Amino acid sequence: MIVARVTAKVTGSVQHPVYDGRPVYAVRRVRADGGTDGSFLAVDTVGCALGDEVLVARVPGLGRALFDVDRAPVRSMILGILDAHPS
After folding, report:
1. Helix and strand tally (H, E) in the chain?
2. Whole-angstrom distance, CA of residue 26 vs CA of residue 39
3. Enclosing H/E stretch for 57
4. Stated pTM of the model
5. What are the structural domains, with CATH classification, of the chain?
């Protein structure tokens, strides 16, 4: 699991059907010192908002299992919203 901060909502005119209307966000990894680095995209499965600190999973095959499809073009998924940053 990766702790990340949601920085932007990503939109496009065409989406793969596996997304099924789920939002896609740009997130930045949060380091232990509170700084951020390394932006990447993640599919939201919990209803987060801009600025939220979230838990992101990047496990191979997790998208396929969660979305119940043979091939899911998903690498990162937001699976939780943090109430407070872990110390």
Report:
1. 1, 5
2. 7
3. strand 53-57
4. 0.83
5. 2-11+20-81 (2.40.50.220)
